[in-house]
Structure formats: C-alpha cells, structure tokens
Amino acid sequence: MSSIILVTGATGTVGSATVAALSSQGAKVRAGVHSLIKGENLKRLPGVELVEIDFARPASLAVAFTGVSTALLITPFTQDQVAMAQQLIDAAQAAGVRHVVRLSASGAEAEPGIQLGQWHRQAEEYIKTKELAYTLLRPTSFMQNFVHQQAGSIKEQNAFYLPMGNGRVSYIDARNIGEVAAEILLRPEGHDGKAYTLTGPQALSGSEVARIFSQVTGRTIAYQDVPEEAVRTAMQQQGLPDWMTESLLELHAISRAGYASGLTSDVQAVLGREPYTFQQFAETYKDCF
Ligand SMILES: NC(=O)c1ccc[n+]([C@@H]2O[C@H](COP(=O)([O-])OP(=O)(O)OC[C@H]3O[C@@H](n4cnc5c(N)ncnc54)[C@H](OP(=O)(O)O)[C@@H]3O)[C@@H](O)[C@H]2O)c1
C-alpha cells in the first residue's frame, strides 16, 4: 500500500503545521494547495510534494487523492464549507483512502450550537455515513489567531480589542494540532471513530493574555473589552460579509459566556506530552508582536 499522506488546506495555519510535523518524521507528504506559488515554502521541506486543489475543479481532487493512504481534510472558513468537505470526503472514499482525519471545531457536537459548529457537525455526520475510517479533531480557538488578527494593534497601540468580557478561552497552539494530526495520519491504528477535543493547558481571560504579552515583549500590553455592536460595525466597515460577521460574533459570545474554557487531556493522550502554554507560544512568535 502507498504511504503518501495528503494534507488539504496545506498553506493554512493547521495545514502548514501538519506538513512540517509529518516532514520532520520522514513522511512522504502531498501538500494540497490552492495556489502553487503560495506553496513554495512547503516544497522546500524534505519529502514534500505539491498538488493543486481547487474545489471548483473536481478533477483536481481526484488527482490529489490518487495513491493516498491517509489524509487530513481541512476546509476554509467559507459559506460553502460543508459542500467542500463533502467533496473531499467523496474523493477520499473514491480513491480508497485508508483513514481520514477531519479538522473540525470544539463544540461541533453541541446541539443546536452556533453556525460554525453546525457546519462542522454536518461534515462530521457526512463522514459517518461513509465506509471510511476516520478521526475527528475538534480544537478550541488557535493561539495563532493573535498573530493573524491582533498583532497589528498590539504592535502599534500596545493593545488588543475583543468583545469577550472576562470570559476565559482554552487557546491551543496550532503546532500541537498539526502534531496530533501527523501522529494519527502516520499511525492511525486505535484512532478510528474517535473525536478529540484539543485544548491548550490553561484557560485564559483577555487580561491574562495581555499580562503574558507584556512579560514577553517587555511593554505594557492592554486588553480592551469592546461592545459587540462596535465590533459588528467595524467588521461591516471592513467589508466582511454578514454571514462571516455574525459567525465571528457568535464565537466571541460563546467565549464571553465562558463556554470556551473547558480543558481536556486529549493532546497529551495522543502525543504523550503536554501542549504548549500561551507563554511558550508568545515567546516563539515574539517578533510578530
Ligand atoms: N481559527 C480558529 O481558532 C479555529 C478554531 C477551531 C477550528 N477552526 C477550523 O479550522 C479550519 C481552518 O483551518 P486553518 O485556520 O488552518 O485554515 P486557514 O489558515 O484559513 O487556511 C485555509 C486553507 O484553505 C485554502 N483554500 C481556501 N479556499 C480554497 C479553495 N477554494 N480551494 C482550495 N483551497 C482553498 C487556503 O489556501 P489559499 O490561502 O491559497 O486560498 C488555505 O491553505 C476551519 O474549518 C475552521 O472552522 C479554526
């Protein structure tokens, strides 16, 4: 049997972390990228080849899954993500893939749940209707969101703004998600039909996150709670579509209410070591802030 491991969404936060973790263990990795140019950095890693995946071109999926033994299925944050996930699952089954790992989200199992959770649940349910061995990864909010969304204001104003009150979040470092995915893709035995809720080691409030950034950067970084309406207006002014604005506000509301603060030992159970702390994350990414 072939030992090619496919990672879709490979240039994204979790996809790139997974490709790096697989490559470091000597795996033969096929990185499924939306754009070959964006994938150039991945191609430099040992054992990594690129394949283009475009959901608008189903033939590209058939090519990407050819000869693949295990695959990580990641879909982007779009309104048609369920249809995209179904395309990936169908392509994996048609190609005879042995085991798929699906990147879902914490709370996907909660009914009725928020919009994003519902979309992930639909994708999870679809996998379960198939003759496919699978593992579901349900991470909490990524620490790397601070790099992508808050680094600008932290750098320029020594502050970050979120509508989260004093709600705590059990942020996870996306590198740990990649390591968990890599472990299961390389050694799927024992993970079939399992769902792992992946959290960091602590649940932190905005003020606690600000304190860590202050320690690491040597500057005083402030957390500013902002009203939901102000965030909605800002997102609308940035041109975000309504579905995206409302989905993101739902996520923040969950955090504000304290529902994103649960901790699990699933990272430790799969990897045999503790997940990274927020402090470790902030030190690694210090230059971004
Ligand atoms: N962020 C969080 O805190 C969080 C928490 C829990 C779960 N999640 C889940 O994580 C998933 C996203 O993972 P991520 O943050 O690692 O992804 P990401 O960084 O947003 O990257 C998305 C990837 O999908 C690719 N892509 C976008 N449109 C595409 C298309 N039409 N055809 C093919 N590829 C396409 C992108 O490539 P290009 O950039 O080249 O377009 C990129 O490689 C979502 O399902 C989200 O719900 C996120």
Q: How many runs of DSSP E, i.e. beta strands?
A: 9
How are the strands of the biggest sheet laid out side by side?
3-2-1-4-5-6-8
The share of residues in extended strands comes to: 15-25%
Query: Which cofactor or ligand species appear?
Result: NADP nicotinamide-adenine-dinucleotide phosphate
Euclidean distance between termini CA atoms: 46 Å
Radius of gyration: 19 Å
Q: Which regions are unreliable across 5 or more consecutive residues at pLDDT < 50?
A: none
- The H/E string reads EHEHEHEHEHEHEHEHEHHHH
- The CATH topology of the domain at 4-141 and 172-199 and 262-272 corresponds to Rossmann fold
Determine the mean pLDDT. 97
Shape: globular
The DSSP helix count reads 12
The oligomeric state of the chains shown is single chain
Architecture of the domain at 4-141 and 172-199 and 262-272, CATH level 2? 3-Layer(aba) Sandwich
Assigned CATH superfamily of the domain at 4-141 and 172-199 and 262-272: NAD(P)-binding Rossmann-like Domain
Determine the fraction of residues in helical runs and give it as a percent range.
Answer: 40-55%
Structural class: alpha/beta
Major pleated sheet: 7 strands, parallel
CATH class of the domain at 4-141 and 172-199 and 262-272: Alpha Beta
